[in-house]
Amino acid sequence: MKKTFLAIAVIAASATAALSADDPIAQRKALMQANGGAAGLSAGMMKGEIDYSPAAGKAAITALHATAMTFGDFFPEGSDMGADTKASPKIWEDPAAFEAELAKFQSATAAAVQASGRAGPADLDAFKAAVGPVLGTCKSCHESFQIK
Questions:
Q1: Domains along the chain?
Q2: What is the model's pLDDT at position 10?
Q3: Of 25, 90, 130, 139, which is most buried, counting CB atoms within 10 Å of its CB?
């Protein structure tokens, strides 16, 4: 249980750091760190490495949804030129495709939030059904719009 609360605290701290920076690259990175924390917690629960709890499931889904709803705001013109970014030039070359990918992420996280209810998914199977499509959108976006 302590691991779960520690993971949730890391997610929250990372998201808070993202909101305090003025640099869009730093904001994107902080949001992706928070997203990675939520995805890591999700994967750990899905694999049975971390005990599942509805509260932890809800926290992970909520963090993923928060990223989905804000992430697209941090790609202004010129923020592709930073020395420390993994954002692919394709984001600015084909913004419609990037927006479509963000829309899939937003839709998947909104559905997961809806499915998780007020207290979080009741059991691990419900959590897997809710968060699985979200993690699929993460993979899809990284394959198309992230420099490896």
A1: 2-72+86-145 (1.20.120.10)
A2: 54
A3: 130
- Residue 18 has a pLDDT of 45
How far is it, in rounded angstroms, from Cα 135 to Cα 105? 9
Whose structure tokens read 């202004």? Answer: 76
Residues contacting residue 94 through CB under 8 Å, at least 6 positions apart = none
pLDDT, averaged per 10 consecutive residues of the chain (148 residues), comes to: 51 52 88 96 97 97 97 92 86 96 98 96 97 96 93
Convert the pLDDT of each residue in 33-51 to its tens digit: 999 999 999 999 999 999 9
Burial class of 106 by CB neighbour count within 10 A (0 to 12, 13 to 18, 19+): middle
Query: How far is 17 from 87, CA to CA, in rounded Å?
Result: 19
Distant-in-sequence, close-in-space partners of 116: CB < 8 Å, separation ≥ 6: 54, 57, 58, 61, 126, 127, 130
Element (H, E) at 16: helix 2-20
Q: Is 61 marked as binding a ligand?
A: no
142 is in an annotated binding site: yes
